[in-house]
Specification:
about 625 residues, alpha/beta, eight-stranded mixed beta sheet, 19 helices, globular, binds NADP nicotinamide-adenine-dinucleotide phosphate
């Protein structure tokens, strides 16, 4: 047995030591800065007379139609496979392949895996093994280490297990680096590392009916057996590249934001970044502080709302030191905020429990019809976007640049972003916005990007081109009862799950925060908590009933899929733009795998009390 694996003399189980060493000490960052200029901290007043009238609606439509078909992405294969290399850790710890069995095998050591471990362990389930592609814990926060990275949900509600670790985040919006360290803190405190096989990617998961076990094969030659498999490997995990003519010719340095290469010294260099989504919005202000010339290649502007970063106050620290369960209570209050803008503001008095609500509720004298309600939502979205656009004009000095930075689509149709330094960055003489609307960058050569006949020579090219959404390749590699993969099932029947957690024909398989897993909260951590609690309940229920297998009936799955489709159709006007949320504008309403409705809790509660959706064996 190698040093990476030893046997616990008490339990006879294997204990792992596979956490990789850090590859570099250069990695550091502080996320959002505290800004004092009041102009940057408030959205300008609503321009007078702003309504979502026919003219404005036509403008939105034209903005969308011009971009139709422009999105073209590809996986990192062939010569681009190197963009997937783990640049953050030393090479994998050598170990022998495993062919043994465990009770619960979890894929992923991000928030999902960590929280699940905490909850399972509390409930007495300890024969749990984790497989993680990266060299350490953190998931999203392991891979994404670009300068400027931070969370956009207030960190006191977003970071899991704050009460249990006694940790208080340093800032209202913690940096990604602080979040990753918190993941390590959780892992250390609750002995997670003993259970995790790092640098281990699951390549095939096959149900064996005869033994009632999953056979899990990995890229490390393992062929393990597990009674339960839990997929906790995220919904925006696999990075993608824009497919651009000539991109293979570029001779300078290049990388994707989710594998930030800190060995490339950007100081004084000519740097280009393709993409202006949530990642680029955080990275660009930090890049501008270092590089010689910065070229931002934008196809569609993001909405840039106020961030208002602040440090955690001494008063808060004092209060929370005395208040047991403060984070859980705060997260509970945060979960009751359903409006995005209110969640963004994260009213401290309300979240601290000092005032009963975060706003004065509007009372209507009668119940609005769904159409009226949608009209109101579209109208308030428009007014908010008018303020977001007015903010651009108030901050960005060059009128042409300001015009290009203004987004025309419903708020939240594309991921809303927040920053107080992003817009001022475009006033700097060495920062150049290259407006590539509506088709985006279409040509790259040996020296850099070429757009409309102009060559932009670059030393470094950074792809901020995002991730596959809801479609991790994992689903192609899971074979259930009928010998078909999850992807094959969903491609023929449409996405079918029960609560996003089960899918019929794939017994003892659970998906955490996957397609249809929803929950309608702005805070994904909430969803992870809800899913982890559900899984623990299911394991306990099975233990009590002496059941070793759980599957779900097709009926409840179909009904749930119908419900998800109805919610999707009803809210589709709010997503009337081109976005990865709606398959780059190609998905027909009702076909989306994402579920943001609020009935999840109710449906789950009913299932737990009747047990009728389940087939126990
Ligand atoms: P993204 O939102 O998918 O952005 C990809 C960007 O690449 C878009 O701006 C896209 O333009 C652009 N693009 C693609 N092909 C192009 C081309 N040929 N020419 C020019 N531009 C091109 O990816 P992301 O910014 O990495 O964010 C992904 C998600 O990660 C976010 O939505 C969010 O959920 C999460 N995230 C969260 C945080 C946080 O919590 N703080 C931070 C970062 C990311 P179009 O818009 O025109 O398609």
């Amino acid at each position: 047995m190698s040093e990476a694996i030893r046997i616990d003399s008490e339990t006879g189980r294997k204990i792992f030591n596979t956490r990789a060493a850090k590859a570099s000490e250069k990695i550091k960052g502080k996320g959002y800065s505290v800004v004092t200029d009041q102009k940057l901290l408030e959205l300008p007043k609503l321009p007078p007379g702003a309504t979502f009238n026919a003219e404005e609606q036509a403008k939105y439509r034209a903005f969308k139609e011009a971009r139709a078909g422009a999105a073209d992405y590809m996986a990192m294969e062939g010569q681009f496979k190197k963009y997937l290399d783990d640049v953050y850790s030393e090479p994998p710890i050598p170990r022998e392949a495993l062919t043994d069995e465990c009770e619960i095998l979890v894929v992923g050591a991000g928030f999902g895996g960590l929280l699940l471990w905490y909850k399972l362990r509390e409930a007495g389930f300890t024969d749990v093994r984790f497989c993680e592609k990266g060299g350490d814990v953190g998931g999203t926060w392991y891979w994404n280490r670009y300068p400027g990275i931070a969370c956009d949900v207030e960190s006191y509600s977003y970071l899991p297990l704050l009460d249990e670790t006694g940790y208080v985040p340093s800032m209202k919006f913690a940096s990604g680096f602080e979040i990753m360290e918190h993941c390590q803190r959780i892992a250390e405190k609750f002995n997670f590392y003993d259970h995790c096989l790092f640098h281990t990617t699951v390549e095939a998961t096959t149900w064996d009916e005869a033994s009632g076990r999953w056979i899990v094969e990995t890229d490390r030659g393992d062929k393990m057996r597990a009674r339960f498999v839990v997929l906790a490997n995220g919904i925006l995990t696999t990075p993608k590249l824009a497919r651009i003519n000539g991109m293979e010719k570029f001779k300078g340095e290049s990388f994707h934001t989710s594998r930030w290469n800190y060995d490339v010294d950007l100081k004084g260099k000519r740097v280009g970044i393709i993409g202006t989504g949530a990642t680029a919005v955080q990275a660009i202000p930090e890049l501008a502080k270092v590089v010689g010339e910065l070229y931002v290649f934008q196809r569609t502007p993001s909405s840039i709302d106020v961030r208002a970063q602040r440090e955690t106050t001494a008063e808060e620290r004092e209060q929370w030191a005395k208040e047991r369960g403060w984070a859980e209570a705060r997260r509970g209050r945060f979960a009751r905020i359903s409006e995005v803008r209110a969640a963004v503001l994260a009213n401290d008095d309300y979240l601290a429990g000092k005032v009963p609500d975060f706003k004065e509720r509007k009372m209507y004298d009668r119940k609005l019809t769904p159409e009226e309600y949608m009209e109101k939502q579209l109208d308030s979205s428009f007014r908010l976007m008018e303020q977001v656009r007015a903010r651009v004009d108030a901050i960005v000095k060059d009128p042409k640049t300001a015009a290009a930075l203004k987004p025309y689509y419903p708020y939240g149709c594309k991921r809303p972003t927040f920053h107080d330094e992003y817009l001022p960055t475009f006033n700097l003489p060495h920062v150049h916005l290259v407006d590539t609307a509506p088709k985006g960058v279409t040509e790259i050569n040996e020296r850099g990007v070429v757009h409309e006949g102009v060559e932009y020579p670059l030393d470094v090219l950074i792809y901020a081109t995002g991730f596959q959404w809801m479609g991790t390749s994992t689903f192609q590699k899971i074979k259930g009862r009928e010998g078909r993969t999850l992807t094959e099932k969903w491609n023929t029947e449409g996405t079918r799950t029960f609560l996003g957690l089960h899918t019929s024909g794939f017994p003892n398989l659970f998906i955490v925060t996957g397609p249809q897993g929803g929950g309608g909260s702005f805070n994904f951590t909430d969803v992870i908590y809800a899913h982890a609690d559900y899984l623990v309940w299911m394991m306990k229920t099975m233990r009590e009933r002496g059941a070793s297998i759980v599957d779900v009936h097709k009926g409840p799955e179909e009904e749930y899929a119908k419900h998800c489709a109805e919610v999707d159709v009803a809210t589709a006007p709010l997503r009337d733009c081109i976005s990865y949320y709606n398959g780059e504008g190609k998905a027909t309403p009702g076909s989306l795998a994402y579920y943001g409705g609020r009935a999840w809790e109710k449906i789950r509660g009913e299932a737990q009390s009747t047990l009728s959706p389940y087939v126990f064996g």
